């Protein structure tokens, strides 16, 4: 009996000193939430922050009962910055913090369903990044509450695990699919395949190959940037032939008008930092990412691969520019009519799928799908993706656009 009681005493001591993660800590918040949201309580107590923070640290103390639940504050980057100033400042200087600007810059965003944007079931699911504005904070329609997601996108709440955020899958939710298939390109490249294989066969040495964070967040730097940017455009361009392709693309993006003059969209490009607009800025970002590559590869290998990747983007731009000018010619000759509210009689690539003609739909896919894959796959070292999902598709698109343009001209002539 004495041995049994001794065992019980030891067991109780272990439980008291090391409570299970599902057990609520003794606080007013957790006494209630362990009943209504036990998963959140379990996640919070699973993480390291539970050792030093309480619910009030992030959510404030205005909400203390079911009657005032609407007073609970939702954390923003400013909340995280109180303890993680270095990482927050890095994040705010990078492109992820500008996600909302990029979404709102699209001319058709206002036309989309509320659930698609504000309800985060479409573009808004990834592009509600950055500081939470006060208007959103006062939004009483909880179904469409704009959370102002930032740190929580990678350090999933309420655990906020650094270990989780260091895995490549942390990037997969946003960086996959149609116009940004970085996950598919990396995971099927030699880098990705090797890393994923080593998880099972040699987990201690999987760090010998890079994952997303190693290249895009070197030394834990939360400022995520690339030289080419999402659109794959830059100014100035020393290659005169490429510059002509680039000017056509910028006209299609509405950054230049059909005569080549800058428009108001140039200011949006600057604000969203979606392109490098000085040689110094481009060279600085290119040099930064090259230093990461040089940790594993020699300089000749790195220089050759970047040179060939740039050349592939030029080849993609050559096909794309011809397609844009083909469709622009239909506008010029009145075969495609300018839509109400459309600034110029010229194809608007940022209208995306909000077009009335099949030929413009193909042009949209050529831009957002096939050019993106040809461009991005070359830099992610995935030749198969660059070929069959990128360059080959661009050629198919151009052939279809030319054929459709001919048919449309013949039909227009008959009328």
What would you note in describing this structure?
The protein has 415 residues and is an all-alpha fold. Among the domains are: 46-55 and 74-162, no CATH class; 225-409, Hydroxylamine Oxidoreductase, Chain A, domain 2. 55% of the residues lie in helices and 0% in strands. Helix 20 (299-332) packs parallel to helix 22 (383-414) and helix 21 packs antiparallel against helix 22 (383-414). The longest helix is centred in the last third of the chain and has 34 residues, at 299-332. Mean pLDDT is 87; it is low at 10-24 and 131-148. This is Multiheme cytochrome c.
Head-to-tail CA distance between termini: 103 Å
Q: State the helical fraction.
A: 55-70%
CATH-wise, what's the superfamily of one domain? Hydroxylamine Oxidoreductase, Chain A, domain 2
User: How many extended strands?
Assistant: 0
The SSE order reads: HHHHHHHHHHHHHHHHHHHHHH
The CATH topology assignment of one domain is Hydroxylamine Oxidoreductase, Chain A, domain 2
Largest sheet: none
For the record, the CATH architecture of one domain stands as Up-down Bundle
The poorly predicted ranges are: 10-24, 131-148
What is the beta-strand fraction? under 5%
Q: Output the radius of gyration.
A: 26 Å
CATH class of one domain: Mainly Alpha
Class computed from helices, strands and strand pairing:
mainly alpha
Total number of helical segments? 22
Average pLDDT works out at: 87
Shape designation: globular
Pfam family, one: Multi-haem_cyto
Keywords: Signal
Protein name: Multiheme cytochrome c
Organism: Dissulfuribacter thermophilus
């Amino acid at each position: 009996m004495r041995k049994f009681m001794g065992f019980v005493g030891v067991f109780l001591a272990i439980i008291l000193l090391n409570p299970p993660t599902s057990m609520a800590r003794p606080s007013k918040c957790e006494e209630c939430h362990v009943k209504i949201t036990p998963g959140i309580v379990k996640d919070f107590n699973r993480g390291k922050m539970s050792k030093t923070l309480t619910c009030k640290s992030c959510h404030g103390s205005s909400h203390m009962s079911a009657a005032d639940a609407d007073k609970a504050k939702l954390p923003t980057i400013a909340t995280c910055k109180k303890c993680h100033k270095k990482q927050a400042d890095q994040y705010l200087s990078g492109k992820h913090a500008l996600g909302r600007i990029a979404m709102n810059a699209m001319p058709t965003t206002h036309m989309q369903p509320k659930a698609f944007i504000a309800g985060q079931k479409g573009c808004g699911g990834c592009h509600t990044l950055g500081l939470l504005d006060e208007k959103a904070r006062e939004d009483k329609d909880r179904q469409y509450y704009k959370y102002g997601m930032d740190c929580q996108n990678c350090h999933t709440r309420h655990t906020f695990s650094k270990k989780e955020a260091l895995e490549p899958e942390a990037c997969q939710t946003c960086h996959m699919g149609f116009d940004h298939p970085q996950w598919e390109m990396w995971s099927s490249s030699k880098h990705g395949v090797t890393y994923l294989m080593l998880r099972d066969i040699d987990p201690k040495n999987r760090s010998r190959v890079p994952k997303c964070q190693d290249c895009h967040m070197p030394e834990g730097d939360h400022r995520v940037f690339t030289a080419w940017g999402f659109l794959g455009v830059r100014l100035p361009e020393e290659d005169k032939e490429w510059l002509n392709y680039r000017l056509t693309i910028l006209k299609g993006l509405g950054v230049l008008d059909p005569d080549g003059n800058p428009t108001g969209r140039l200011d949006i490009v600057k604000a969203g930092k979606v392109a490098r607009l000085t040689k110094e800025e481009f060279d600085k970002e290119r040099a930064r990412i090259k230093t990461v590559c040089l940790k594993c590869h020699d300089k000749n290998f790195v220089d050759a691969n970047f040179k060939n990747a740039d050349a592939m983007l030029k080849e993609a731009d050559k096909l794309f520019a011809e397609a844009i000018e083909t469709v622009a010619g239909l506008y010029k000759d009145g075969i495609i009519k300018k839509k109400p509210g459309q600034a110029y009689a010229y194809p608007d690539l940022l209208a995306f799928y909000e077009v009335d003609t099949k030929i413009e739909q193909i042009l949209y896919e050529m831009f957002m799908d096939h050019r993106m894959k040809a461009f991005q796959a070359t830099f992610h070292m995935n030749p198969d993706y660059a070929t069959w999902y990128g360059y080959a598709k661009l050629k198919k698109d151009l052939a279809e656009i030319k054929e459709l343009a001919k048919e449309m001209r013949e039909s227009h002539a008959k009328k």
